[in-house]
Write a structure and sequence with these properties.
This protein is an alpha+beta fold. It has helices at 26-41, 123-136, 141-144, 151-158, and strands at 46-48, 58-61, 68-78, 82-89, 92-102, 104-110, 116-122, 145-150. It has a 5-stranded antiparallel β-sheet with strand order 1-2-3-6-7, sandwiched between helices. The chain has a 3-stranded antiparallel β-sheet with strand order 4-5-8. The mean pLDDT is 94.
C-alpha cells in the first residue's frame, strides 16, 4: 500500500467539487486501501479522496469502531438537533474551529463491492461523515466554523490533550 501526501488548505483542488465514481474498479479498491493507510498514518479519523488529490466522491472514516468506506456518499437526512464541537482537519493542521453540525445523519452510497449502503450515524461519527462529505463539495471546516483558533492555543489551555 501507499501513503499519500495530504493536501493542505492552500491547494486549489480542495475547493473543487468531486466527481461521482461511475464504476467501481480495482483502482477504486486500491484508492480505498491507500486512503486508509494514509489516514491511519496521519492519525486521522476520516479522509476524503480530494484531500489526497483525487477528485472522486470517496470517503473513509474510523472513530475506533472499524473502518467505514463510502463511495458516492450522500447525506439523505439529518437531525434538526445540532451541536457545536471543536473540529480539526488533516488538511488544516495548525488550526481548530468551533463548528455546528447535525447530531445525527443518514448516509447512502456504495461499498467497495458496489452494493448499496445505508448508514445511520450519530454523535462523533455523524460529525466525521458531515466533515468528510463537505470535502467532496469543496468545503473545509473553516467555512462552517464560528470561531477558528490555533491548535497550540488550545493545547496551552488544557495541558496538551485534545
Amino acid at each position: 500500500m501507499a501513503i499519500y501526501r495530504i493536501l493542505t488548505e492552500s491547494e486549489p483542488s480542495l475547493r473543487e467539487k468531486a466527481r461521482p465514481v461511475p464504476k467501481i474498479t480495482p483502482n477504486i479498491h486500491k484508492l480505498l486501501d491507500n486512503m486508509a493507510d494514509t489516514m491511519y498514518n496521519a492519525k486521522g479519523v476520516g479522509l476524503a479522496a480530494p484531500q489526497i488529490g483525487v477528485g472522486k466522491r470517496v470517503i473513509i472514516a474510523d472513530i475506533g469502531e472499524g473502518l467505514h468506506e463510502l463511495i458516492n456518499p450522500v447525506i439523505v437526512s439529518q437531525s434538526v438537533e445540532e451541536e457545536y464541537e471543536v473540529e480539526g482537519c488533516l488538511s488544516v493542521p495548525e488550526r481548530l474551529g468551533d463548528v455546528c453540525r447535525a447530531v445525527s445523519v443518514v448516509l447512502e452510497g456504495q461499498n467497495r463491492e458496489g452494493e448499496a449502503l445505508r448508514i445511520e450515524a450519530e454523535g462523533y461519527l455523524a460529525r466525521v461523515f458531515q466533515h468528510e462529505t463537505d470535502h467532496l463539495d469543496g468545503l473545509l471546516f473553516l467555512d462552517r466554523a464560528d470561531e477558528v483558533f490555533l491548535r497550540t492555543d488550545v493545547e496551552d489551555m488544557d495541558g496538551g490533550e485534545l
